[in-house]
Amino acid sequence: MRGLSLNTAGLLAAAIISVLALVVIPQVAPFYILLQITLYFSFAILALSLAFIWGFGGVFSFGQAAFFGLGGYTYAILSINMGSSTVPLIVAIVLPTVFALLLGYLMFYGRLSSVYLAVITLVVTLIFHKFLGHTAGFEYRIGNAHLGGYNGIPAIPPINVPGDVTKFAFPEDMFYIAGVALVIVYFGLRWLLSSHFGRTLIGIRENEERAELLGYDVRLYKMIAFGIAGAIAALGGVMFTNWNSFIDPHVFDLGMSAQIIIWVVVGGLSTLIGPIIGAFALGILALELGTQQTIDVNLILGAILIIVVLFVPEGFVPTIKRMCIWLAESRGWLRSRLDSSDLEEKQGRDG
Amino acid sequence: MDLAAITIIQVINLIASLALLSIGLAVIFGMMRVINLAHGEFLMLGAYAVLVPTQAGVPLWISMFIIAPLFVGIVGVIIERLIIRHLYGRMMDTLLATWGLSLLIVGAMTMIFGNTMEGISTPFGSFTIGSLADSQYKFFTIGITAVVLLVAYIVLKFTRFGLIARATMQNSDQASVLGVSPPAVYTLTFGIGAALAGLAGAILAPISGVLPTMGAAYIAKAFITVIGGGEAILTGTAAASVFFGAINQTTTFFTSSVVGEVALLVAAIILLRLLPQGITGRFFRRGL
């Protein structure tokens, strides 16, 4: 239950950090770093979508990349056709959500086991990859938008102020838009997880049978959670597409799905802050590794994943947190340093 | 008429390839409940284990039937000892670890061989039916698949090792009381699964071309075949291969190969909605 209970100190810290980050970074960081951080913001949103459905819903999904890409593609196609970004923005989130609900219906009402779920979501992602990769022909166009196969869709219009196409977001503005989106998703998820729905969801993760016997419709809860995760991933996809003003089928490939999982696993499953940190840390790492030629990026990412699964199975944030507490306990500073969530947890365990 | 004959051969060939590339995974997943996401990379290693010796002058058949399975089998044993062993019973962690392994192997092979496609010339020539020609290698693939399935069946059903392996998978405590060493059986089973994947990769190499990232193209197909097959590994794999292969090739015949693959994947999702236990959860229940 770590990180769950609305602990005021942590919430306040998160709020202060996010406001500071959004205000201070643009003043001090050069433009190219700002761009890079904007990208990590969209990745962090994507990481949160998996953190939510996997860490708190207990549903392992390979398919967050599918909703991410679907959101991006929907936004691209509609904004090219419509010029203005308001309607595309809404549809680009609604459509993947509906798709996630439908897929969730097929999977949860079919009562597939978690492993089959993983494989089905993987297969769906690969279907998108395969299909969109082969849309290079001239017949694959939706209105003015050319799907373009592996060449992707270039020149996607940026977000604009609703109703005024001339006031559109410059890359600097995207930093704020994506940053605020991430903050909203983060606090929105914290709120959701402390609500009745969130608590029920965690109850289901802990013991599905018990929740069912208590009268909760497990299938419905999981389906809705899957839909919410799809919506979050789609939002990340829209931010990514705006950042890039370009999208291609690579968003659906295995590497993308792998990255999301690695962010969450390394950062720490069943936390929200861990996956955000994971997305940033591994994003920076991938960027650094990309600048040299000797060692392949995949090799490093794969090695990290194996090592984390074998030696740090909880991920870094929970492990470091536990080590801090252990250290504090052994030195006798525990009382003063213990925050309320840990106290609650301790009491819960003792009681 | 000629077209019909050629089409039937192509359908059977596709079914055989599906079964061939899934059988190694079926052994590892079906018997050990280990989700091996590095299966595609085992196939890829098998393909390289044919390519490199062949380029060095070793006869194709030796590298295909001896070097490739042996090499990948040894790799499998090493991986089981180093990684999989520590994760038994933690299905999700095994999945993640083998996923990491898959990335690691792709990365390592890309560093060694570069990200370029290399080919092995397809042996045999072509045959003609009426005015239409096709590769004789298709008959070879079909024949090998039949032999592999048959041998696997005989080994599992009639040999002492098969009996011990099945017993260990069903109840490892009981088996260990009776003097079997479950860890050794697990290692060997994983190695055999890997060797079968290596053999499959070797046989597919001349058709598909050899590339470090080639595994990704097969992993989804192999998984849905095994999962679609269900509990009984051999019967299930064979039945699912027939079902998916027929759908894929028929759709391909009427539309394009991409639509064919998409149809296969969609069919898999629908099948699992209707038969969550796979084909052998409902039919051929007594199969092996």
Search tags:
heterodimer, A: 351 residues, mainly alpha, ABC transporter involved in vitamin B12 uptake, BtuC, two-stranded antiparallel sheet, 15 helices, 4 strands, 73% helix, 3% strand, disordered N terminus, disordered C terminus, B: 288 residues, 11 helices
Overview of the structural elements:
The complex is a heterodimer of chains A (351) and B (288). With 351 residues, chain A is mostly helical. Chain A has a single domain, classed as Orthogonal Bundle (ABC transporter involved in vitamin B12 uptake, BtuC). Chain A contains 15 helices and four strands. In chain A, strands 1-2 form a two-stranded antiparallel sheet. A two-stranded antiparallel sheet of chain A has the order 3-4. In chain A, helix 3 crosses helix 9 and helix 7 crosses helix 9. Chain B has 288 residues and is mostly helical. Chain B has a two-stranded antiparallel sheet. In chain B, a hairpin with a 2-residue loop joins strand 1 and strand 2. In chain B, helix 3 crosses helix 8 and helix 9 runs parallel beside helix 11. In chain B, 49% of the residues are buried. Chains A and B meet through helix 5, helix 10 and helix 12 of A and helix 4, helix 9 and helix 11 of B.
Give a topology summary.
The complex is a heterodimer of chains A (351) and B (288).
Chain A: H1 8-28, H2 31-56, H3 64-82, H4 86-108, H5 114-133, E1 141-142, E2 145-146, E3 160-161, E4 164-168, H6 171-194, H7 196-206, H8 208-213, H9 218-244, H10 254-267, H11 273-290, H12 297-311, H13 316-331, H14 334-337, H15 340-350
Antiparallel strand pairs in A: 1-2, 3-4
Chain B: H1 2-32, H2 39-55, H3 60-82, H4 91-113, E1 126-129, E2 132-135, H5 137-158, H6 160-170, H7 172-177, H8 182-208, H9 216-229, H10 233-254, H11 257-274
Antiparallel strand pairs in B: 1-2
Helix pairs in contact in B: 1-5, 1-8, 1-9, 1-10, 2-3, 2-8, 2-9, 3-8, 5-6, 9-10, 9-11, 10-11
